Amino acid sequence: MKAHNFKSFALNVMQLYFVQGLNYVLPLLCLPYLLTKLSPDAFGTFSFGQAFVQFIILFVDFGFNMPVSKKIALNANDDAFVLSTYKRIITLKFVLFGLAVLLLLPIFYSLASWEIYRTAVLLSLITVLGSILSPLWLFQGLNQLKTYNVFNAISRFVTLPFIFILIKDDSDYITPTLLYSSALFLAGLISIAYLYANHFYKGFWKVPLFFHDIKSEIRDSYGFFLSNSAVSLYTNGLIVVLGAFSTSSVVGLFGAIDRFVRMICFSVFVPISQAAFPMVSRLGVEDINSGKKLLKKIIFLTLGLLSLILLGYFMVENIIISRFFKDYPNVRSYLRIAIFTILPIGVGGALGQLGLVALGGEKEKKLFYSGYLIVGLVIFPMSILLIMLSPLNGAITAMMGAEIFVFLWMAFIAIKRGII
Fold first, then answer.
1. For residue 209, is it left (φ>0), alpha (ψ between -120 and 50) or beta?
2. What is d(CA 82, CA 101) in angstroms, rounded to the nearest whole number?
3. pLDDT value at position 126?
4. Given this model, what pLDDT does residue 363 score?
5. What angle do CA 239, 241, 244 make, to 5 degrees?
6. Closest CA to 251 of 45, 400, 390, 6
7. pLDDT value, residue 340
8. HEC string of 292-334?
9. HEC profile for 230-249?
10. CB atoms within 10 A of CB 2
């Protein structure tokens, strides 16, 4: 692999870690604060609202983000192409948001067992608007992630500190729900202002929308929508199912464990993935061997960093549990098992997103989302049965089983297709 490729990647990762580090500082501080201030019931209601609205975001995003980001990365110098693609995707997302509100909310309101979560879900809808207005896929394709992450950091530092100021009542799930939702919405407004100031929208209203182009975007993204749906089923879906078959306090305990594990994992993997995706995508077209070598280094980097974090967790486990999980019974044994999930999540993500999608072709992309379809069609129905038999044990078993299966699938396909 050419030295400047890895040097450029390493520089981007360090810059993203600095900015993303700022992005993760407040959530990492807010999570333990919420765990100590909110009752398990209130934290469960907050977690349910955040999880349920992810299904609406999933429908609105419709798998556009990754394939569109790759298209823009390959055509970044074609301003007309970028603008027309942006207009198509934004228009589609607003249409899908309207459909989601009309279709999903009546179903939600018809279920009496979810009545206690209604306010949290309504407030969380602000997050959906924020996800539409925050074109991460555009900045990623244009290799301007540092700019986007600065906007994200600003929005979080403007909104999330109020959690420490405003939350006094241990039953107040409304304040954190509203503040978490507002953070992404503000990032979207800043992104739009930035694009407007840089004349990105020049000629926006004159760009035509052709039905065959819209149809093509849906066709190209449909597979990712299916795979993302499967991912959401075994992540956010587990919390939603728990809400139907258990109490809000059990939802709170599982939500706390799940958020803790995924936040640790994503704080390491997301900056690496964001920095590497455009570069690996280009190398997949221009120099496949260099792309494979870069992927190999990324996998070892991800595995090494997550292993160090895993070791560090056990060194400070007593402090974490005594300070942040004291109101959650038997959390130690659950955390000791669930924390190991960071390894298959991180390495599986690198193999899938950077290996099969960014570096691979159409065949690899189909195999990529096939793994998630198997999880959604096979493992998730099994998880419902496990949760019905033993809510918390079933949810944690299902979460870990799904992540391990995805990792093994991505590794098997990457080796079989010669990606690694």
1. beta
2. 29
3. 92
4. 86
5. 115
6. 45
7. 94
8. HHHHHHHHHHHHHHHHHHHHHHHHCHHHHHHHHCCCCCCHHHH
9. HHHHHCHHHHHHHHHHCCHH
10. 12
Give me the residue label for tokens 């033993």. 390
* CA-only gyration radius of the chain, Å: 21
CA–CA distance, 99 with 154 (Å, rounded to integer): 31
Which residues, 6 or more positions from 57, have their beta carbon under 8 angstroms from its beta carbon? 127, 128, 131
User: CA torsion, points 256, 148, 128, 155, in degrees to nearest 10?
Assistant: 70
Domain boundaries, the chain: 3-416
What is the b/e burial string over 176-211, where b = at least 16 CB atoms within 10 angstroms of the residue's CB? bbbbbbbbbbbbbebbbebbeeeebeeeeeeeeeee
| CB-based burial label for 119 (10 Å; 0-12, 13-18, 19+) | middle
The DSSP letter of residue 346 is H
Q: Nearest to residue 272, comparing CAs of 161, 375, 198, 346?
A: 346
What's the count of helices (H) and strands (E) in the chain, helices before strands?
19, 0
Q: Under a CB-based contact definition with an 8 Å cutoff, are residues 395 and 385 in contact?
A: no
> Residue 405 in contact with residue 380, Cβ under 8 Å?
no
Rounded CA-CA distance 232/46 in Å is 17
Residue 215: both structure tokens together: 């149809």
The answer to whether 391 touches 242, Cβ cutoff 8 Å, is yes
Q: What is the pLDDT of residue 1?
A: 46
DSSP state of 339: G
User: At residue 408, what is the residue type?
Assistant: L
Instruction: Report which residue type is found at 207.
Output: V
Return the ∠ at Cα 184 (arms to 181 and 187), rounded to 5°.
145
Tell me if 383 sits within 8 A of 394, measured CB to CB: yes
Give the H/E segment covering residue 219: helix 211-234
Q: What amino acid occupies position 418?
A: G
| Residue ranges of the chain with per-residue pLDDT less than 50 | 1
**Residue that is written with structure tokens 């260099």 in the block:** 290
Torsion sign (Cα): 381, 384, 389, 393: positive
* Gap between the Cα atoms of 205 and 346, Å rounded: 41
Give 372's contacts (C-beta < 8 A, 6+ positions apart).
Answer: 226, 227, 228, 229, 230, 231, 406
